[in-house]
Amino acid sequence: MLFAEVHKSDTGIYFCNVTGIGGTDSAPAYIKVKSRLAALWPFIGILAELIILLLTIIIYERHKAAKDKKAAEDFPLLGSQVNAGGDAKASPSHR
Q1: Does the residue 16 lie in any domain?
Q2: What pTM was estimated for this model as a whole?
Q3: How does strand 80-82 pair with strand 23-31?
Q4: Which residues are paired to 56 by β-bridges?
Q5: How distant, in Å, are the alpha carbons of 28, 65, 68, 95 from that of 83?
Q6: Does 43 map to a domain?
Q7: pLDDT value at position 94?
Q8: CA separation for the pair 18, 25 (Å, rounded)
Q9: How confident is the model at residue 54 (pLDDT cuts 50, 70, 90)?
Q10: Domain total for the chain?
């Protein structure tokens, strides 16, 4: 079936009638006319979920970085230095 132009009021049950050599048959079909923006709502929902997820990750990472910075300030590496590779090595006075 092809509908050239439909409106919300066209929603309903339609019957398809077929007649041929083998006889006649009829079958009902429920047709629901949706608005043009109907497919947009799932996209908006997914986009909102992604934004909430990204904000949660950003807030968590900022909180974690602030916590790590405070811990580093409270407990500095006493008597050791960190080289370019990230390894701590003892200062000359502790060998």
Answers
A1: yes
A2: 0.47
A3: unpaired
A4: none
A5: 78, 21, 19, 16
A6: yes
A7: 53
A8: 5
A9: very high
A10: 1
What gap in Å lies between CA 88 and CA 95, rounded to an integer? 13
CB 53 within 8 A of CB 61: no
Judge whether 14 lies within some domain: yes
* Count of CA atoms in the C-beta half-sphere (13 A) of 40: 4
Question: Which tokens go with 9?
Answer: 């009021």
What is the average pLDDT score of the chain? 82
Say which amino acid occupies 12: G
For the chain, the helix, strand and coil percentages under 3-state DSSP, each to the nearest 5: 45, 25, 30
Q: How much of the chain, in percent, has pLDDT values that exceed 90?
A: 42
pLDDT at 91: 53
Decide if 28 is inside a domain.
yes
